[in-house]
Design a protein that fits this description.
Domain Glycosyltransferase subfamily 4-like N-terminal: 16-191
Largest sheet: 7 strands, parallel
Domain Glycosyl transferase family: 192-350
Helix content: 40-55%
Distance between the termini: 48 Å
Number of domains: 2
CATH superfamily of the largest domain: Glycogen Phosphorylase B
Structural class: alpha/beta
Radius of gyration: 21 Å
Pfam families: Glyco_transf_4, Glycos_transf_1
Shape: globular
CATH class of the largest domain: Alpha Beta
Organism: Roseibium sediminicola
Oligomer: single chain
Protein name: Glycosyltransferase family 4 protein
Number of helices: 16
Length: 409
């Protein structure tokens, strides 16, 4: 198979969590396919665990790994950051600038526009990964961010959505995409579809994810406390991850008297963490297409998750098993049911794993995105054994039903 090499630069503010997993996999596949790839990200974000993953990626980046200070919120420092990024990206002579998340997307579209004005034939691609789409359109902050997204839409050549839900949220909150758009699910490697067994001394429940309220660790802790109130004994639980609210959750565990039942581990590889407990709980308040849910299902681990973002698309015909987000009573009940019938949880995990490999493949994800780049650049795609669907304007329309059902709760 032959391919026309492209120079591709990915930009993300925070190189952590699922968004960085997506970039790592995509950049690796693109580099292995013969493209020159670079990455630009924030210099102040990331733990030792995250930085180790960055360093593992560095040798694959022919266009280098560059880190600059980037603020999460809109600040005056964004002006100096944009100028610094512009000077770096200008000299890379990129064919594709691919921004991930709200900040990364803003940087590449502004910088890409400046470069086009200077005569560079660069294409600007944006993937929200939730980001600004999580904001409530009826609140002031949401109106501001969605208005910015509408403005930046004028400077966008291609849009990648990681779920039908995300595409529908964009159309509902920002507007119909003017750029060529494509829905591309996150993907896993074949090795990740090997089942993982819990260790003999495993606990009852595992929370794994960022330690911030958006992901719901506080709900997880409160559900453990509720079970203790009913039974007199709290389930044994493990919390794996890092984040800005970690100290608050540790204090919450102490205040509720759960220190003997709950263990904090920091960041761990997902498949290592799965061995810690018999059930995984993902109590998110908002998501796009969370890798941790895909990884849990592929590993055939019993899972309790909420009906947010693209999780219903992962569960498919089993989506009725999902828990209402933010509803502590229903989360507590689901966890109680898991304790009462572990055999049923194991059987459901086996059913759910069924056809995941065909839909959520890292090779399919890379192929779908790279062929979008080629389409934008007018390059004939290389012959491939992976089917490439048409652009997703019709899929965006179909997704309105998914978004409406999820939002109307």
């Amino acid at each position: 198979m032959t391919t026309t090499p492209m120079r591709i630069v990915h930009c993300v503010r925070s190189p952590i969590g699922g968004i960085f997993r997506h970039i790592r996999d995509l950049a690796t596949c693109q580099a292995e396919a013969g493209h020159d790839v670079g990455l630009v990200c924030d210099s102040s974000t990331g733990s030792a665990f995250d930085n180790q993953l960055l360093e593992q990626l560095r040798p694959k980046l022919a266009l280098g790994l560059a880190r600059f200070p980037m603020q999460r919120q809109l600040t005056l420092q964004d002006l100096s950051a944009t100028h610094a990024l512009y000077r770096h990206i200008r000299d890379l002579n990129a064919d594709i600038l691919h921004g991930h998340g709200a900040k990364g997307g803003a940087y590449v579209r502004l910088i890409g526009t400046f470069l086009k004005l200077r005569g560079q034939n660069v294409k600007r691609v944006y993937c929200p990964h939730g980001g600004s789409l999580h904001y409530d359109p009826n609140r002031f902050e949401g109106r501001v961010y969605h208005a910015i997204e509408r403005g930046l839409g004028q400077f966008t050549d291609g849009l990648v959505f990681v779920s039908d839900y995300e595409a529908a949220a964009y159309e509902s909150k920002v507007g119909h995409p003017k750029a060529k758009s494509r829905i591309v699910y996150n993907g896993l490697t074949p090795e990740e579809f090997q089942p993982v067994e819990a260790s003999p001394d495993a606990g009852d429940f595992l929370y794994i994810g960022m330690l911030r309220d958006l992901k719901g660790p506080d709900l997880f802790i409160e559900a453990l406390y509720n079970i203790r109130l009913k039974t007199g004994e709290a389930p044994r639980a493990h919390i794996v991850g890092e984040g800005p609210d970690e100290d608050r959750y540790r204090n919450m565990v102490a205040k509720l008297g759960l220190e003997r039942a709950v263990t904090f581990h920091g960041a761990l590889p997902a498949r290592e963490a799965f061995q810690l407990a018999r059930n995984v709980v993902i109590p998110s308040r908002a998501e796009a297409m969370p890798y941790i849910v895909l990884e849990t299902v592929a590993a055939e681990r019993p899972l309790i998750a909420t009906r947010v973002g693209g999780i219903a698309e992962i569960f498919g015909r089993y989506s009725h098993r999902l828990v209402e987000p933010g509803h502590i009573g229903k989360l507590t009940t689901a966890m109680e049911d898991a304790l009462a019938d572990p055999a049923k949880m194991a059987e459901q995990a086996k059913e759910l794993r069924g056809c995941l490999a065909e839909t959520f493949s890292v090779d399919l994800m890379s192929d779908r995105i790279t062929t979008l780049y080629q389409d934008l650049k007018g390059i004939a795609p290389a012959e491939s054994s992976t089917p490439v669907a048409a652009d997703n304007s019709s899929a965006v329309s179909r997704a309105q039903t998914i978004y409406a059902r999820s939002s109307n709760r």
